[in-house]
């Protein structure tokens, strides 16, 4: 450590460097740190002078790490993660509570986790949850969290992955909407399809029988947040593609029903993933196993409730 102190203008330089590297912009880093952009520039220039290397390539509106910058950034974030883990362990020992951070969609949190949060707290009373929420399609790094839900093929060199279930899609709507719109024999029937704006799902490619002639005039509602997509379906505004790992609770309670007796499994798999650089704590492992067990129990109940979906055919090979 004495050697490290001699190699840095100040310990604060590491925090400034990490923020600038992560944000890719000195102005954004300054706003995050609560200082001025010139102060960030001066600190980074001083750090480069101490190290006698260039850490950033500066372009209009953006900065890019050099090879030396990438090496330092990796070392800094690894060190910060270790320090953060140590602080969390100290706090856990003093309070008896352990914190687990999840990177999940707002839809998963709103429509799957919240209805059963009381059960999680009863079964795992020593765990506090924090969330990194994603409004659209789930993606992004899990370096700064304990667990993330991602649609990936499985483990890779950087991540461990635990299977939750295959990606299963079911067109869903409220019972009232199905009765009034889909079961009507009237001439002026129209159907509203509710979609996620950044989804890769194409209604008519995925469901070739779901064509215009079947349901008359077709309208669209498109949202950037899947939580709103499901909420709109719950409110009887139309039909949504239901990802089973999110919509299973509402299917089980009957608040949503299959719009057609159709379920489709894609090639993707829904996993709980975490970085190999950050070994899972005992608390994170408990949360992981709880989410997997609850989801699979939900799906089993939905399968019994709606046998016409034939969900067991999608689950047998993976579970």
TrEMBL record:
Tell me yes or no: is Transit peptide among this UniProt entry's keywords: no
Residue ranges of domain HTH lysR-type in the record: 9-66
Q: Which residues cross the membrane?
A: none
Pfam families from the UniProt entry:
HTH_1, LysR_substrate
Record-level Gene Ontology MF annotations: DNA-binding transcription factor activity; sequence-specific DNA binding
Q: What is this protein called?
A: LysR family transcriptional regulator
Question: Which family does the record assign?
Answer: Belongs to the LysR transcriptional regulatory family.
| InterPro entries according to UniProt | LysR-type_TF_proteobact-type, LysR_HTH_N, LysR_subst-bd, WH-like_DNA-bd_sf, WH_DNA-bd_sf
- What GO biological process term is on the record, naming one? DNA-templated transcription
What UniProt keywords are attached to this protein's entry? DNA-binding, Transcription, Transcription regulation
Please name the PROSITE patterns in this protein's record: HTH_LYSR (PS50931)
Glycosyltransferase as UniProt keyword: no
